Fold this sequence. Notes:
Elements: H1 11-14, E1 22-23, E2 29-30, H2 32-49, E3 56-60, H3 65-76, E4 80-83, H4 90-100, E5 104-107, H5 109-112, E6 125-128, H6 129-137, E7 154-160, E8 168-173, H7 174-188, E9 195-198, H8 205-216, E10 220-223, H9 229-239, E11 243-246, H10 248-254, H11 261-266, E12 269-272, H12 279-288, E13 293-298, E14 307-308, E15 320-324, E16 329-333, E17 346-351, H13 363-369, E18 370-372, E19 382-392, E20 398-403, E21 408-410, E22 413-415, H14 417-425, E23 430-440, E24 444-453, H15 460-471, E25 480-483, H16 497-501
Parallel strand pairs: 3-4, 3-5, 5-6, 9-10, 9-11, 11-12, 12-13, 24-25
Antiparallel strand pairs: 1-2, 7-8, 13-14, 14-15, 15-20, 16-17, 17-19, 18-19, 19-20, 21-22, 23-24
Helix pairs in contact: 2-3, 2-6, 7-8
Amino acid sequence: MSTAIRPLDHLPLVGAARDPALLIPKGEAISFAALESRTARLAHWLRARCPDAGARIASWLPKGELASILPLAAARAGLVYVPVNPLLKRAQVEHILADSGARLFLTQSSRAALLEPGDVPEGIQVLEEALASAAMADEGQPGLPPSAAAPDTLCEILYTSGSTGRPKGVMLSHANLSLGADAVAQYLAITPQDRTLCVLPFSFDYGQNQLFSTWRGGGCAVPFDYLLPRDVAKAVARHGITTLAGVPPLWVQLLEIDWSAEAASSLRRLTNSGGALTRPLVRRMRERFPHADIYPMYGLTEAFRSTYLPPALVDSHPDSMGRAIPHAEILVIGPDGDPTDVGEPGELVHCGPLVAQGYWRDAARTAERFRPAPAASAYGGMAVWSGDTVRRDVEGLLYFVGRDDAMIKSAGNRISPTEIEEAAVAVPGVAEAVAMGVADERLGQAIRLYVRPSGSGDGLTEALQAALRRDLPNFMQPREIILMTALPRNPNGKIDRVALAGGVTA
């Protein structure tokens, strides 16, 4: 497989003679040739509405044909695509629209109705999904030819939560996305005979790559929104799915349901990121899906994917993160700036062409995470300093040691504690709030919210629950709310999160 850096919108051309490229449940099968022509028509339609190169277009859509093709069409039109997670609520959508400076917002009337006056900044065109879909399907519409975009041209902004503050936009180039697709297609060995059930949100790098890597290998992508785990099992059987990407909580749910022999035997690849697989979980996955290879992976939105563990090593090295994926250079760097010795912990630093271009309109946070590569790097340039501590064994395999930031990782979502805390203190009667992650077998981490009331606290828990259900998506809801008369503080007067994590009560 060639490693030439192609513009993202060239992906349909890779498998132009193959069929199909996209299969829409309860819809049609779309060939690679049709995918290319629909990308061309949609790109023309988008450019007519946003003629300025580099203008941002946002979408808030369910999975389907339009959501699948939009990233390719926006790239071809010279625009910057900003997908919004369908699970987000109005406060998060408002922030992303304003922060990105989007000029066009594609959504559905039912979703648009959830927004209030002022949520959509002035000057943004809000257009119905149906308009774009009709233009894309109309064979009488003109189309744009494949782009000649330079590899470092900004292509997408993916919003991800940080350990503090609201979601921040990670800037991704054509090279980032194109090489990311190539890398995953390589190590998963995707072929035209493969079908991927795309159950993860397309607003995540992991979820979006379900499409790109499948197309890069000539396979068929099946976008699928599900309500219950058994819907996934039925779809696997119905569509002859060979590849399924998930996060640990999803695997737990999928292993709790009954699978037909047909469905269980069709799977050939199970990929995991967003949290480590436990040994018992791997054992159960092997028992349920005996013909499937398991690919544990580690990634950062700021550099897409860093490592994967080949299936042949999962049993002998079950706790390992694996080695660098194609196109990535992974170094373990000590406090002195040099690579650590075998077995010595250090910071995981990701170098090479998968490194993103920084955070959109946020030079301060960009400078914290994106810094010059260590002297030992063969690539040089800017690197992502992950903040994660890892160690390397004598075989070159990496092992996770710990995370330096305060991120909560629940059900595969990276959640900002500050965002939850800001929503909590906006509720009358709340003086202070601290959100933390606590170990949970199903979720990885569940959210615990500590609150100091400004008054008696009578009825506050119920009021908080109602307000947070209204203002935050489901995956950000606290499992428990603990009222405290005082919160522990360190000598600097700041809330002592370490003491709270250690079980201080008041």
